[in-house]
Amino acid sequence: MVSRVRLAPVSAKAARARAVPTDAEVEKLGRTLRKSLQKLLDDVCDGPPAEHALVDRLGLDRSSVGRVLRALREPSTHAFLAGLPSPEGLTLVAEASSGLGAATADVEDATELFANLIHRHPGKRRGLNARLAAGAPSARERADRDARRAMSKAAAEMVGFRARRIDATLFVLPTGDPKRFDGAYLSAKWGVELLRPNGPSVSVGSVRPGPAAPRLDYGPLDATAPADDPSSCLLRDHCRAANRATRLEFVEHGPDGVELRLPASEPEVGDSVDVVWGQRIRHSLLRRQTPKTQFEWLSTLVTIPTDRVVINLLLPPEVWPDVDPVAAIRFHRSQPPVPPTHDRGALPGDLATDFLETSTSDGLNDDEPLLYDAANQLGLVPSQLRRWRFEWAFPVLNSELTIWLPLPSDR
Questions:
Q1: Cα–Cα–Cα angle for 262, 263, 265, nearest 5°?
Q2: What pLDDT, in 10s, does the model give residues 155-202?
Q3: How many CB atoms lie within 10 A of CB 9?
Q4: Is 43 helix (H, G, I), strand (E, B) or coil?
């Protein structure tokens, strides 16, 4: 026996109430909610709202108030909606404003429509935000940043240690060699800390004392220091540990390499250390293109979970390039790297340079003592250097950030 179920017809109004919101609905709601929220906060603060004043006036936590203000500063409707707190959070703002005598009816109506929009969207708020991110670069970048922050935190908890920041710096040094420049490389691990007791021994870098290849000659920045002693590469004035000297172990890992490691279970949980070292690499950088090489490059592999990676490229006036360096982020390390084309998106495995904050400036000041001191030690004039700076927040563990310096052609 086959039973039959008769379905009641659904009205057009009810169908619309259940349907996935259209782009036009999202845009209209965003404009309405923005206008009503802006008017409400202007009324509460008697003018353009400031976060600290608004927190004091409403008696709410800084998180909800801050999210509303940041969302209102977003230029696009999609980024505005993605940045808002939940409808419940908006309701708290409206209720607190009502207690100060502000008219809240428009905000309450728009908040109810916002809650309905979220309810109708597949995946609710998460699904709506994913849709908004696809149409708003700032919202997409925020979603990516949040995901990478979560990944970085999880990786740190898994391996048991982290660094606040990792810096890599390359100084290009003029020489009398018609084909090559010298290079000086600085590596800094700032705020290295263990997250649990009895943690692992942490590698903070590797140095290559003495000649490492027929044309390469590695040595400390201080030309008077012994070249075959790896501890000569440490920049002790910039290495710091709370309440004690920074201790390191030097472990040979090849015929010409020595690994720098923190001893097991150091630093103590809740403590941190800064480890900084540098090396001069003679005859290491090409001056001009060759049939096989069109770029010089500086690469940093993210081997420690960290909040950010910074790469600095510093050149004196006589070696300033005609074109700016190119930055690329890759998941997989390759040796040697494959030179990019001028189309930055053509790199295999490239994540996109949207994740990087880049800047160019002329001159170093003594407010950055590591770079300033190193420039003086290398015989350079800090005020005459041109600097390219690349910063990547919450980098993915085992990813690689590479800076490519296009070489001039003889033609």
A1: 105
A2: 888 888 899 999 999 999 988 888 888 899 999 999 888 888 877 778
A3: 7
A4: helix
